[in-house]
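Example 3.2
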Amino acid sequence: MFQDAQEELERLEDALLEEEEYEDISAYNNDPADIDLDDLSQQLLQPQPKSYTGFATFMVIITLVIVILVTLWVLRRMGVL
């Protein structure tokens, strides 16, 4: 049992030493930025203009559906369909 405990202690010691090696390594991002980050942050903080094209498209489609349904109803009442 002593040999197993000694092996386990050595394994743990090696793991701790390896972990200390990882802690000593420091990493920095040296990639150059294509744009000025201050300008980008200012652009993101400014309110964006609202666009109503999606709402307008939705309303046009709903209106067309209503017109088609009313036309079909009128044609059916007249006996054409």
